[in-house]
Amino acid sequence: MLKSLYKEAIERKDYIQGRIEEINSLNVSVVDEWKDRYLNKNNEFKISAGDGSIHKRNLLGFVFYAIATESLIYDNGSLNKIEHSKVDIIGKNDSTSNRLRNYMEIYEIKNAVKTIKEFDPDYYLFDGSIFGHLIRPISMEKDIPEDKRVELVNLSKDFLDSGFKVNIQTNYFKKKFEEEMREYKKYKPIFYLEYIEKLVSLAKLLKNKEKIIAISKSSNSTTYFNKNFPDLTIFNRFTKKAGYSIPKYHEVSYYVKYDFPIEDEFFRKLVFTVFYIRLEDNKNVLKVELPYEADDNDINNVITVLSRYSTEGYPYLLKKAHNDVVIKKKDMEQLSQIVGFYEKSGREMLN
C-alpha cells in the first residue's frame, strides 16, 4: 500500500468519523410514511423473474466480454427458464464501458419480453430500476447533430413500424444498416442506434406494464424526506417490522425535459408508482417500482406476490437468477482459453 494512503487516512479520520456520527444521530419521523402490517402469503400466482451479468477482460487493442441473462418462471410447483448469453470482443474507447452496460440492459429487457410473450406470467420481477433507464440522460447525443439523429431514426423507421421481433441480439441496427452507417461514421452513429434498440425493447416491455414489478436493493432517491440521506437508508434505520411505505407517483414527463427519439408520447405519458417494502421483520428494505398508476388493490396484490415468493426478506426467484448468471473472474479465464486468446493484457505485460 502507498504511504500516501496511510497519511490520507490519518488526515481524514476526524472528518469521516464526524460523517458517521451525523448518520448515527439522524432523527427522522417515518410514522406518516410507513405502514406496519402482516403480509398475506396465501394466494398463488404464476410469477417470473430475471437478472443479468457482465464481465470483461481488457486485452491489448480490445475488450473481451461475456454477458449472461436468465429468466425463471414458477408455475404451480414447476420451474422453467429462458437463458441467453453472448461472448464477443469490442474495441477500446471512452464509450466502451457505457456500451457494454447498455448491451447487458438490452439483454435483460429482451429476455423479460420473451418470457412474458411465451409464458404469460401474472407478474415479472425485474431486477433494478426501469424508471432510471428512462430518465437517465445519454451522453452520446451530444456527439451527433440533431439533424443527423433524425436521419438515423428515419433509417430504422421500417424496422420500428414493422414491429419488434424478440430476438436476443445486440447491435441489430449495426448489422442491418452497415452500409448506410459509413457516411455517419464521425458522429458515432452505432452508439446512438444501440440506444434506440434499448428504447424499442423498453417500449415493448412496458406494453405489459401491469405485469412488471421492478425491485432495487439500493437507491439514492430522496423523494420522501428530502434529506441528505437516501429514503432507503432512513426507512431501514427507523423501521423494523414488515410493512411498506405510502406510495408516491412519478410522471416521466416531469423528470424528462427532452424528447425521446422514438415512442416519445408513450414514454412521456407513463406514471410510475414507487414505494418501499420490508418483507420480513428486521430484514432489509427494498424499493419497488410499478410502471403504471397503481391503486390500493394493485399494490396489495404486488405486496402479496412479493411476500408469498420470498425467503429471508428477498424474492427467491430474483436471488436464484442472480446466483445463476453471475460471471466470475475464473469464468472469464476459462472462456478466454476456449476462444483461444493468448494475447496478454497491458497489466500482464508489467509482470
Which SSEs are present, and which pair or pack?
Elements: H1 3-24, E1 34-36, E2 47-59, E3 62-75, E4 78-91, H2 96-119, E5 123-127, H3 130-135, H4 146-155, H5 157-161, H6 172-176, H7 178-181, H8 189-206, E6 212-216, H9 231-238, E7 243-245, E8 248-251, H10 252-255, H11 264-268, E9 271-278, E10 286-290, H12 296-308, E11 310-311, E12 314-315, H13 316-325, H14 329-339
Helix pairs in contact: 2-8
Question: What are the key terms here?
Answer:
disordered C terminus, 12 strands, 14 helices, 351 residues, ten-stranded mixed beta sheet, two-stranded antiparallel sheet, alpha+beta
Number of helices: 14
Intertermini distance: 18 Å
Q: How are helices and strands ordered from N to C?
A: HEEEEHEHHHHHHEHEEHHEEHEEHH
Low-confidence stretches: 166-170, 346-351
Description:
- The chain has helices spanning 3-24, 96-119, 130-135, 146-155, 157-161, 172-176, 178-181, 189-206, 231-238, 252-255, 264-268, 296-308, 316-325, 329-339; strands at residues 34-36, 47-59, 62-75, 78-91, 123-127, 212-216, 243-245, 248-251, 271-278, 286-290, 310-311, 314-315.
- By secondary structure, the chain is an alpha+beta fold.
- It has one domain.
- The strands form two sheets. Strands 1, 2, 3, 4, 5, 6, 7, 8, 9 and 10 form a ten-stranded mixed sheet that branches.
- Strand 11 (310-311) and strand 12 form a beta hairpin.
- Helix 2 (96-119) runs parallel beside helix 8.
- The protein is globular and about 60 Å long.
- Residues 166-170 and 346-351 have low confidence and may be disordered.
